[in-house]
Design a protein that fits this description.
With about 150 residues, this protein is α+β, with helices and mostly antiparallel strands. It contains 3 helices and 8 strands, in the order αβββαββαβββ. It is globular.
Length: about 150
């Protein structure tokens, strides 16, 4: 038997907690011809956007650069937050050093120190949904058009 459904406000708090404490997120992207690609990436959350890094010429790097959109998943299938967002692409040296330092400290990974050409991808949520089980499908939308609903 599943627990009682959480309120929208509780789901938002839980989602923001995950954004602040989780280190990895599933990133789904698609090429111009619609070929999907899914990878886990480390991220940092600054309260407004997620910052991730991946090689510029990887399928994910190419897809995010071309489409400027991504779909992210935090958690697992019985406690998930789905985030659709707009992507800003930054060259690795375009990010202020203190933000790169913060990313490296949080994730244990510093793409600035690698020889491969990495880029930063700043993903700003425009839609967020969160649910645990079937009883939370109603009211799962927490953000629409970049504005929190609760």
């Amino acid at each position: 038997m599943s627990a009682l459904p959480r309120s929208r406000a509780e789901r938002r708090r839980d989602t923001e907690h995950r954004l602040a404490t989780d280190v990895d997120v599933w990133v789904a992207s698609a090429s111009a011809d619609g070929s999907p690609h899914l990878v886990p990436l480390s991220f940092d959350w600054d309260g407004e956007a997620l910052l991730a890094a991946t090689p510029a010429h990887s399928p994910t790097g190419r897809n995010l650069d071309a489409t400027r959109t991504a779909r992210l998943a935090l958690g697992h299938t019985r406690d998930v937050a789905m985030i659709e967002g707009d992507v800003e692409v930054l060259d690795i040296d375009a990010l202020p050093p203190h933000l790169g330092d913060r990313f490296a400290a949080r994730t244990g990974f510093d793409p600035r120190s690698l020889t491969a050409t990495y880029r930063w991808f700043r993903i700003t949520p425009r839609r967020v949904q969160a649910w645990r089980e079937e009883n939370e499908l109603t009211g799962r939308e927490l953000m629409r058009e970049g504005r929190w609903l609760a």
